[in-house]
Structure formats: C-alpha cells, structure tokens
Known about the structure:
The complex is a heterodimer of chains A (377) and B (171). Chain A has 377 residues and is mainly α. Chain A has helices at residues 2-32, 36-47, 53-56, 64-72, 143-169, 178-198, 206-224, 235-251, 255-262, 271-314, 320-357, 361-376, and strands at residues 77-81, 88-91, 93-98, 102-107, 116-117, 120-123, 126-129, 136-138. Chain A has two domains: 27-141, no CATH class; 144-361, no CATH class. In chain A, a hairpin with a 6-residue loop joins strand 1 and strand 2 (88-91). Mean pLDDT of chain A is 79; it is low at 1-9, 14-56 and 362-377. Chain B has 171 residues and is mainly α. Chain B contains three helices and no strands. Chain B has helices at 2-10, 15-150, 154-167. At the A-B interface, helix 1, helix 4, helix 5, helix 6 and helix 7 of A face helix 1 and helix 2 of B.
Amino acid sequence: MTSKISTYKRFSSTCFVIFALFFSLSLKLNASEPVEPSTDETGAVVSENPHDTKEHDPNAPVDIAAVAFEHILDSHSWHLWGDHSDAVAIPLPVIIYSNTKGLQFFSSSKFDHGAEYAGYILIDEEIIPVDPNETVYDFSITKNVAQLMLTAAILFLLFTSIARAYKNTGVTSAPKGKQSFFEPLITFVRDDIAKSNIGAKSDKYVPYLLTVFFLILLNNVLGLIPIGANLTGNIAFTLVLSVITLIVTNVNANKHYWHHIFAPPAPKALYPILVPLEIVGIFTKPFALMIRLFANITAGHIIVISLVGLIFVFKTLWISPVAVGFALFIDVLECLVALLQAYIFTLLTALFIGSASADHNEDGVHNDEDEKATAHH
Amino acid sequence: MNSLFISASLITPGIGLIFWTTVVFLLLLVLLGKYAWKPILNAIKTREDGITKALASAESALNDMRELKSNNEKILAEARNERDALIKEAREAKDAIINEAKSKAQKDADRILASAREQIINEKNAAVTELKNQVATLSIEIAEKILRSELSSDEKQKALVNNLMKDVNLN
Lengths: 377, 171
C-alpha cells in the first residue's frame, strides 16, 4: 500500500515538476522577448540584476520565471515586501571561505544594488570573486539557513516547554494546551510510523523520526507563507536529511539485509547484474526520498506563483478571479501536501530502517506457508 | 538562457546549506532528543503504562466482583438447598413422629380396647355365673316355697296328681 502511495506521489510530483517547468518556461518565452534588447545592451551584470530594469521601462513585461525562481531559490537577504529600490529586506550575514583570503564575514547589505564588496560580487545569489584565481565556498547564513535556525529554535523551545509541562503537571493528569495538540502527533509518529514499520526495536529511532517529521512539517508550513523561505523545497536540505536516513538505515542494517544485497536469492550467474543493481538500490531509496520532498514542495510553489503571475502576463485584472481561485485551490492543496510530505518522508524513513533491520522470521514463515499452499494445490 | 541557469541552480545543492543543515539538524536532534523527546516519550509511556495498569486492575476488580457475586449466589443457592433439605427433613421427621405416635396410640387403643373387651367378657361371665347361681338359688327357694304351698293340703296334692295325670297319656 505504501509503495502504491509512493509510486503515485512520485508520479504526481514528476507531473507537477514537468507541468510547472513547462508553464514557467512558456511564460518566460512570452515575457522575455521584449526585454531581450535591454539585457543585451546593458551586459551580463546589469541583466542579472532586476533592480535596475524598473528605471528602464515600468511597462515592461514581468519575467514570471525569474520571479518564481527568486521565490523558490535561496537568497542572501530575507526579502519581505516591495520591489526593486523600494524593497524591504532583512540583510543576513555572509560567511565565505576563500582559498586566498580565508574566512570572511560581512553583511549581505553590502551587495545591495549590485555593488561590489571586498572583491566579491553577488550574481544570481551566487558570490563570485572578481579575481579569477580565487575560489570561494559560500557558508552564508542565507534565508534558508536563517529559517532553518529559526525553526530549530522554535521546535526546541516548543518541545522543551511541552516536556516541562509533563514534568510540572505529572503524568496522572490529562494533557493541556500545546501538550494535548502535540501528544497525538508524537504518539502517531511513535506508534503508526515507527512501531508499525520498524517493530520491536523502534524506540531507538523515534527521536530521529520525530525531529525529521516536525522540522519538515514546520518548514513546509512556513514555506507556504509568502515571506517564508522554501527550505524543504531546497535540494540541499532534502539531500542532508536523506543522507542521514541512508546512514541510519545502513548502520543499523542486519546480516539479512547485506546478505540480500551481496548474495541475492538467485542463480550465481546473475550476480554480476544483480549485485550492482542491489548496491545501486541502497542509494536509490534515499535519493527518491530527497527528490520527492524537494519536487513536491517546489512544484507547489511554482504553480502558485505561476497562477498569480497570470495576472501580470495577461496584464488584465479580469484574469484575477481565475488566477486567485486556482491559486487558492493549490494553496489549500499545498496545506495538505505540507502535512502529507512530512508524513511520507518520515514514514519512508521508518520503512527503510524497518526493512533493513527487520528480523525476517515472518518472511520465512510466510514463504513456508506459500510453499505449503502451492503444494496443496 | 537565464532560466536554464536558474533551473540548474534549483537542482544543485549548495555547500553552505548542506553544511548548515547538517550542523543545525544534528544539533537539533541531539538537543531535542535529550531535552524534549526523552522526557516527553517517557512521560507518555509512564502514563500509558499507568492507564494500562489501571484498566487491568479495574478489569481484575470487575472479575473479582463477578467471582464474588457468583460465589455469593452459589452460597445463597447452597443455603437455600440446605434450608429446603432441612425443611424436608423436618417434615419427614414430623410425619414420622406423627405416624409413629398415631400407630402407637392405635396400638395402645387397640390393646386397651382388647383388654377392656376381655375384662368386660370376664365380668359378664362372672355376672352371668353369679346370676345363674342366684337364679338357681332363687329357683330352688321358689320351688321350695311353691312346693311347700302346693303340697300344703291333701286336696292340693290330689289336684296336682290329677293335673299331672291328665297330661300323661298312657297310650
């Protein structure tokens, strides 16, 4: 059943991404043609910086794809509202490691309006050194990192306060307030995600699953808010989580799991094909986990922005009921997806851990029964 | 061209976010694990165990009560049976006593009656014998007196002889 869900989700998320990319690309084609001359004449640096285009032509078509990606991708400052020179944004700390200059810290506001600072320039949210011999590694507290830290702090404060409530009121009284809201979620993760997929040894993994679940859920929800960052729709974030899942799964895997990979129950002649496939299989599961969360969340955001962008593409207010209606529908759907994807990520993590560390006694019994059944027939 | 570049950056994980996610996530995992999940899960577990125990004890109390009730009923039924048996026994004893008394009374009565009857017969016989004796005495006395009066004169003797002779048929 879960595999069915996941296949369906994978399929739907793929469709969403394809649809969204097509949509945004076609929008881009429509929108970009009149802009082309201005970007050409101003050169690469200016064309990459949309702040200056406003002065050129206020009626110029809006590049919806650029706007969409601006919302989806990470940023070195936390943009709140406004456009171009009226933009209100919170500058965030830039931390870079350069092979020539070492570690450097400064505010992202130094890059405002395409300015060059300390030999670096910010192009498409990428810090590029002016000196071609220099390579930099960007460890900045970007919008995503800031939200990650913020949500981590929120989760820590929230759950320690809940833990305190248990300590204060004791366990004999009924849970109150936050406690009664989160307790069913916690027991759901513990019983229906961990215990039903991992079995007797599930207690060990419950803290990891709970942390993953609530961190993804909170960031999914914050991503839906216009000023929120698209952290769970960022492949770096999902990459780290799925790599941790990969490590947890394989470190706790039992003999049976490795036996199945290096000595699958098949003729020895097929081993040259099967063993590499099984080894690839170790990585495809967390890889799918990474892509699924990233693609689902990103696709949802692209659709919402594209639908709202219809108003600016068609340059008529009459399209707004359609655009707003559809955007609202997708937004409501995204609320469901936010919960669902947090659930699916946690569930599949538990499933992978469970299948790698399962006792397989049941499996043997099952096979015996099958054999008996076939013999009987 | 521009959008192709951005699309590529969409699926290229940035080293900065990878670094910070790893650091923040692991830190969060450790901190939450120690200060939140452990106490919360322990508290929930303790409460669940408490509830399970309370339910089990309630169940066992119910069972005890049920057992007690069935025991009570058993005892009551036993008592009732015993009472019935006692009553029955008493009734039988009573009947036996009555019957015995009756038969004894009957026997006594019969015996008394028989002895009375015997006594009566004896008395009667005695009376009859005495009466007979007296009658005999009286008869003798009467006969003597009659004889004396009848044979007091010659005429009367003659008349008697005649009378007697009349009755005698000599044929």
